[in-house]
Amino acid sequence: HVFWKERTQHNPLVLEVCVDSVASAAQAQQGGADRLELCCALSEGGLTPTVGLAKAVVCAVSIPVFALVRPRAGDFLFSEAEVQIMVDDIEALRACGIQGFVIGALNADGDVDTAAMKKLLAACGPLPVTFHRAFDMVRDMRAALATLGTAFGANRVQRVLTSGGRATALEGAPVICSLAATAREHGITLMAGGGVSEHNAQRIASEAGVVEVHCSARASVDSAMGFRNTAVHMGAGLFPPEFSHKRASAPRVQAIKHALSAAE
Amino acid sequence: HVFWKERTQHNPLVLEVCVDSVASAAQAQQGGADRLELCCALSEGGLTPTVGLAKAVVCAVSIPVFALVRPRAGDFLFSEAEVQIMVDDIEALRACGIQGFVIGALNADGDVDTAAMKKLLAACGPLPVTFHRAFDMVRDMRAALATLGTAFGANRVQRVLTSGGRATALEGAPVICSLAATAREHGITLMAGGGVSEHNAQRIASEAGVVEVHCSARASVDSAMGFRNTAVHMGAGLFPPEFSHKRASAPRVQAIKHALSAAE
Amino acid sequence: HVFWKERTQHNPLVLEVCVDSVASAAQAQQGGADRLELCCALSEGGLTPTVGLAKAVVCAVSIPVFALVRPRAGDFLFSEAEVQIMVDDIEALRACGIQGFVIGALNADGDVDTAAMKKLLAACGPLPVTFHRAFDMVRDMRAALATLGTAFGANRVQRVLTSGGRATALEGAPVICSLAATAREHGITLMAGGGVSEHNAQRIASEAGVVEVHCSARASVDSAMGFRNTAVHMGAGLFPPEFSHKRASAPRVQAIKHALSAAE
Amino acid sequence: HVFWKERTQHNPLVLEVCVDSVASAAQAQQGGADRLELCCALSEGGLTPTVGLAKAVVCAVSIPVFALVRPRAGDFLFSEAEVQIMVDDIEALRACGIQGFVIGALNADGDVDTAAMKKLLAACGPLPVTFHRAFDMVRDMRAALATLGTAFGANRVQRVLTSGGRATALEGAPVICSLAATAREHGITLMAGGGVSEHNAQRIASEAGVVEVHCSARASVDSAMGFRNTAVHMGAGLFPPEFSHKRASAPRVQAIKHALSAAE
Question: Core-most of A72, A132, C158, D198, by most CB within 10 Å?
Fold first, then answer.
């Protein structure tokens, strides 16, 4: 990974692009991405890519390709069986030439699941490792950084991808900024991700105080199908809930008033 | 509206809360809202409230209640028949004690539809008027502010609600800030709205440079129903599209790289 | 309502079309609808229309127009304030020439809320009344039919709109069919609605054994806007849940096996 | 596959359960499933499972496990690179003990892509093959059955999974039934799938005239996480479109009237 390290020395701001197809990978490299995070099913937040996709993408680009390892959508509390699936997938992906991994596991209290992480890290061997946005679901971000920096040996987890525990990195930028000292102390690079676009990337990097940014930079591409049956949906729909309303909350109004008073 | 104007003089930051029920209206006032925007169907972005709801909310709170007037979701290009529906609804809502209106109409080119606006403004009579987030769909925001400030008489449209043409007010804050001088020149107050929360309200007010902020400050409230049939959905579902992919875009990656280089 | 009654005598199958705009109302009449259900916000399952919309639609068509009265999406357990809002809206809509109402209210146990219904029925005066799909959320459909047929006087509630307690009328057709005798006993007409299309209308009518069918018969119409800002969403998004998975259920697999064994 | 063939001889109705986790696989077998379709990302309609998941599921159950091979959501028009990814994934999955494959590819005109299919079938070797719901997107279902039955050798594609080109198998049951003779002529088994539940399985089997049914039989399972950050969504949201309305369509109303007249 000499090429990539040299690059980042000359250009202190690293852009990782998350892709789920060969076409996206090629576009990302062409646009100047420094690194790829490879996954499938971005609409679910990303799942482990197959070996077929991994081989094709590793072959198609010259920049480093890290693979996301996440066996399903939903929470990050993984069963024994799911941890073993991730271990097996890591081994299969290493054989495809993947150059790094993006992993994460929590326990039910919202702390890093160190037992699961040790198994995943053992499977990753010497390859670089990023802890993914499971970080945004932890109970205590500072404690999680300490765990990631110390529980597995120094510099074993080099990087954390985070939106600061908020819906987007722009929303969470002040939180990310507040974590900088703790991250540095533990030798961990914070990479800001979640809703990054050409309109907000500069603000996010600056307000979050990070040197790495993660985006998917996607545009909608119309299908090349001439014949279209629009009566069929392959994916599952999302339906508005029948048994919960949204209601204005006096405490939230008060909190917003209070936040505003700080702006005056 | 003396009460309300006095209030805003003492507290330069005004908080408008958007509500679609009596319960939300009461919560909003209790939390310290300075003004309500009343609508129905917030999940569609808000539609015109009924007279029943308007009477109940006007009766339930002492702060000013402005009514949104929007006959359907979707674009802001309204037919003759739809403009007449809005005129009739404005008249009916005035009879309920509504103290201001929130309206907007565009033509197909993305400019303010001055002919429609004149009819709506005539129906509003002397009541204060806000131009709603149709503003975020205009082709040229500066031109739209000039139209709103001059085409209907000075100070006829006092306020514009905007997210700066972006998905949220936090995203659009720099754009809103860039409009401040033009708005001031035309005697128009910019109110920032779209995704405002207790976590970002202060940043938005400060980065957008506004003195009015609009939020809904809602929390999910579980239904009080004991018996629940979960097999039925009353609302329409949203389905992932079958005939458009999302693909990484080299120009977007490049634009994000470029934006980041400005941060260094 | 003589015109409408005569019509249904000559054509035993009545088609009600649910509309939320003047344009839809005109299309529905032109296509041969026998009656309209007027509402706003069909994407939420329909809410009370405004008086502006009611006047315009009553004026635009010659077939009977019934108004849906539902102050918000979600459950059908209404507060005192919400019942009063519905009463006020019924009165305002009667003044617009609306010829019938579509109402419904449940208590927390999933039974018809007779106290609320009495207030709503009083407001409806002599106009015909349909009980809406709140019926699909009741605990016991036969008991609900008995309540609707007896608690408010004979023939006060003439009609029940239902999908048989399932997601669509096609799914619920056997359930609707099983309710026919009870409905007839109480002088109530069952109208099948929920996902009715040109492809399934005949099957639904036949398998449900009904003489009235309800549909919206909508097609997507592209906006006439030339300028489009696609960065902004006015409506709220739906997000996949993070804290619930879907998992195959052994009892459900078994139940499906059992159902299939009946088909052999 | 002797076990499975014997079983289906004794029980003419075969139930295939689609699963995307080891837990679902175990539940499906326990409930009496005759065969599994293994995939990941069911919320996208299913994508190719990883080798880690395939090994775990093959190990966990004794019934046959077929793997879905689909590299991404959206249409079924696959590039050369995507076909090669599927070929590589088929080979990797065969090495995991997968006992059959579920594949499909179309060209832009909506016909079966025979060139792509030949490559995929070659990779499948002697294993049984099902053509998946790409079938529901074809231009001409009878022509597609003929292609599947003749273009690759007799009995090479044994089975087609279909909802009859409609949103659900219940909706499409009459269409499936109308295809039975053509399917039989080409030695292809039709398997009905799409929205199958314990409430409709018997009707679907009977009205579609099929001997195989496909379902996922899932129930929501609450996360075991104690700590929950509800401010973050990992998956992408779906938003209502701003630039298309739904409007009642006179031709559709007329078509529904016409369909109903056939029921009288």
Answer: A132
- The length of chain B is 264
Distance, CA of D264 to CA of A90 (rounded, Å): 62
Tell me, yes or no, if D219 comes closer than 8 A to chain A by beta carbon.
no
* Residue C233 banded pLDDT, cuts 50, 70, 90: confident
Q: Strands, DSSP E only, in C39-143? A: 65-68, 100-103, 129-131
Q: How far is the C-alpha of C100 from the C-alpha of C191, rounded, in Å? A: 15
DSSP state of C44: G
Residues of C in contact with A221 (CB under 8 A): none
SS3 C2: helix
Q: What is the pLDDT of residues B188-230, one digit of tens each?
A: 999 999 999 999 999 999 999 999 999 999 999 999 999 999 8
Confidence of residue A100 (pLDDT cuts 50, 70, 90): very high
pLDDT 10s digits, D37-52: 999 999 889 999 999 9
Structure ipTM over 0.90, yes or no: yes
Q: Quick one: which of D72, D79, B253, B257 has its CA closest to A29?
A: B253
Mean pLDDT of A134-148: 98
Sign of the torsion angle spanned by Cα atoms A84, A88, A93, A95? positive
| CB-CB contact of A60 with A53 (8 Å) | no
Nearest residue to B113 via CA among B126, B103, B124: B103
Q: Which domains does chain A have, with CATH numbers?
A: 11-216 (3.20.20.380)
What value, to the nearest 5°, has the Cα angle with vertex C144 and ends C138 and C145?
Answer: 135
**Interface check D238 vs C, CB under 8 A:** yes
Q: Which residues of D touch C234 (CB under 8 A)?
A: 242
